[in-house]
Design goal:
alpha/beta; 16 strands; 44% helix; elongated
Length: 398
């Protein structure tokens, strides 16, 4: 099968969308499929290398971290991919790369599958002074774009329900993004852990609460800082791993709460090094409710960390109360969960083991196989209708 993946962000940018694309394209190739990528370039110039085609662009990071918009899309820019004649196009973004996907699909006559990665209504504060008007704009945009597709992939049941509430009529397939879990299950030496603690200024013997991800307003990390203070737990630190536009604000929150000495910010960390930071942690924390699936939850579980997260539909079946951590709705529940996990060695061990088992459901191999199944179903339906049309037309001619 020839598969074209279109996206508004790609390496060297690294975020959840790019990670998903990289894992998918690698596995699809391993399965024997031919895969090409169409994305904006990192500058004004178009370029091509191996199986990646880049169109000159400008940054539009306010829409989505790392996203870029193509400056000019001409037939000549896309002709090589049109001549390649993909069997299916898998779009991963809703903006200029989707325009390119539509153009190629129209020329070639192939279907488009789209993965809906982002809950844009949680980002309306970036582009609309009114939450209500912003949400209406998001719904209108979503329906207008997705009507050009043959199926939509939702990373979680939460996104499936949201799209149905929007009135999206296309078939929606729930396919959780998969990860290369081996990176997070590998052992790291005690010396390496101690060296990293010294580098970060974490005293030996301290319990470590860890959260990982982009420092942005919608991630609600300031709640974690305030809740951590209210725990009043001696010999404990909150480790915040990741950079982003809200980082200085979060540092100011820690300062105003008088716990700057116990809240440690790493800033941006190279993706290949993130696994080591999980190994520092005792408990993973998240207060975000803007995730479509939340890959950091899976990474934390694969690392053997019990997780305490603000209750959210995307966590159904992922963070299970009393099994691998728990979900909270207020500080009372947050406090009860964290104290129960850390004050009972037997419970901690069981939760850690269950966390690893839960993560196994989200392997990259299963992810790619499930996506391949979506492709095959769409292509089989198209072939069925084409055969039926041919038969109908031949009957009318006889």
């Amino acid at each position: 099968m020839k598969i074209l993946i279109t996206t508004d962000c790609y390496i060297p940018t690294i975020n959840g969308v790019v990670t998903s694309i990289l894992n998918l394209e690698t596995e699809l190739r391993r399965m024997g499929h031919k895969v090409k990528i169409l994305c904006p370039s990192e500058n004004f110039h178009c370029c091509e290398s191996e199986n990646v085609y880049r169109i000159g662009s400008v940054g539009v990071g306010r829409i989505y971290c790392g996203a870029r918009a193509a400056l000019r899309i001409s037939q000549n820019n896309l002709q090589k991919l049109i001549d390649w004649r993909p069997d299916i196009i898998h779009s991963q973004s809703e903006f200029t790369s989707f325009i390119m996907a539509k153009r190629i699909a129209a020329e070639v006559g192939c279907p488009i599958v789209h993965t809906y990665h982002t809950v844009y209504e949680n980002y309306t504060h970036y582009f609309s002074p009114s939450i209500t008007l912003g949400r209406k704009a998001v719904i209108a945009m979503t329906k207008r774009i997705l009507r050009n597709t043959k199926a939509v992939i939702a990373p979680s049941g939460k996104i499936e329900r949201m799209l149905k509430e929007y009135g999206v009529e296309q078939p929606i397939k729930v396919v959780p993004t998969g990860l290369r879990l081996s990176r997070f299950s590998e052992n790291i030496s005690a010396n390496a852990i101690d060296e990293l603690k010294i580098k970060l200024g974490i005293p030996q013997g301290n319990r470590i609460f860890i959260t990982v991800g982009r420092a942005a307003k919608e991630k609600n990390i300031d709640e974690l800082i305030r809740y951590f203070k209210l725990l009043d737990m001696k010999n404990a630190v909150l480790l915040i791993v990741g950079g982003g536009p809200y980082l200085d604000t979060l540092k100011a929150v820690a300062y105003s709460e008088h716990i700057s000495d116990r809240v440690i910010f790493t800033g941006a960390v190279e993706p290949l090094n993130v696994a080591a930071y999980y190994k520092l942690g005792d408990v993973f924390l998240s207060a975000s409710q803007s995730e479509t699936q939340g890959l950091t939850y899976i990474e934390a579980l694969a690392s053997g960390l019990p997780a305490v997260c603000r209750r959210d539909d995307c966590l159904n079946g992922v963070i299970i109360d009393g099994k691998n951590g728990g979900q909270y709705t207020d500080f009372k529940q947050f406090s009860a969960l964290t104290e129960a996990i850390l004050n009972n060695d037997g419970l901690y061990k069981a939760m850690s083991e269950n966390a690893v088992r839960t993560a196994q459901k989200y392997s990259v191999e299963k992810f790619a196989k499930d996506v391949e199944t979506v492709y095959m179903e769409i292509l089989e339906k198209r072939d069925h209708y084409e055969i039926a049309d041919t038969f109908y037309n031949s009957e009318n001619c006889s």
